[in-house]
Design a protein that fits this description.
71 residues, alpha+beta, Alpha-Beta Plaits, four-stranded antiparallel sheet, 2 helices, globular
Length: 71
């Protein structure tokens, strides 16, 4: 399993958290995800044989959020 943290531009409302977490949970290969509203970060644990970090970044951006960095 791989763990990555995606730093986003500022999240503006708590419903953003639910939207992102829902999308991550519905992504094949993601085993855990947690959105930290106050720090605008998304921590994701995933299986790289099923989904890549770049695909997860693109999924977040398709929801309308800007990913500033991935660590």
């Amino acid at each position: 399993m791989t763990n990555k943290t995606y730093q986003l531009e500022t999240l503006t409302c708590p419903s953003c958290t639910l939207k992102i977490e829902g999308a991550m949970k519905n992504t094949a290969g993601v085993t855990k995800s947690k959105v930290m509203f106050n720090s605008s970060k998304v921590k994701v644990e995933f299986d790289e044989t099923k989904v890549t970090s770049e695909e997860l970044k693109n999924n977040i951006e398709k929801l309308g959020y800007t990913v500033l960095s991935v660590k």
